[in-house]
Amino acid sequence: MIIVLFGAMFLEGIGIPAPGLTLLIASVILASRGEMSIVPVVGLAAIGILTGSQLSYFIGRRGGRRLLLRIGLVDRHHLRRLHSLFERWGAALLVAAPFFDGTRQYGSLVAGTAEVRWHRFTLYNLAGVVLWIGVWSIATEVLGHHLEPVLALVHNSGPWLFGTVVLTLLVLLVYRLIR
Question: 93 Cβ partners below 8 Å, 6+ apart?
């Protein structure tokens, strides 16, 4: 399981969407039950995403501009705006990036493309990853002990919960059609 967690985190770091967060949460739950050790879980998760993001950064630094322009994700105007955005808010962006899907996968590539200095990228990326893994690990550990009653409640109220969601979606659809 730990190797799979490392692989998923590495893939997310280089820009390939993978279930890294889901596997992190599952691994922390297993660790809280004593089935795994928390230190390798947290350590390999951090090493996986950090090495993947370093690779993604260097890809962005070497050919990211051409890559992004060639596949049509952005144009030259957007690249200039990204560059100025990283000049102004780079530290905050890199620390917050792991907390959001999309930026967790592509933030490193964009940082390399925006020519953020390597030492600056590495420092803030490390801070963001450690903070992100810490928050999710602690939250999972704390909530994991209270998860069984919540899951039992969801299981017992499953049909009612499902019906409420379907009814809400139907009401929203009818409202949109009428409007």
Answer: 85, 86, 103, 107, 111
**Interval 4-41: pLDDT, tens:** 999 999 999 998 888 888 899 889 988 888 888 989 99
Rounded to the nearest 5 percent, the helix, strand and coil shares of the chain are 85, 0, 15
How do residues 50-83 score in pLDDT, each as one tens digit?
A: 999 999 999 988 987 777 778 777 778 877 887 7
Separation of first and last alpha carbons in the chain:
49
- Token pair listed for 39: 């230190």
Please state, in angstroms and rounded to a whole number, the distance separating the CA atoms of residues 91 and 80. Answer: 18
SS3 42: helix
* Stated pTM of the model: 0.73
Residue 113: partners with Cβ closer than 8 Å, 6 or more residues away: 60, 61, 64, 65, 68, 79, 82
DSSP 56-123: HHHHIIIIIHHHHHHHTS--HHHHHHHHHHHHHHHHHHHHHGGGSTTHHHHHHHHHHHTT--HHHHHH
**Tokens coding 2:** 């730990």
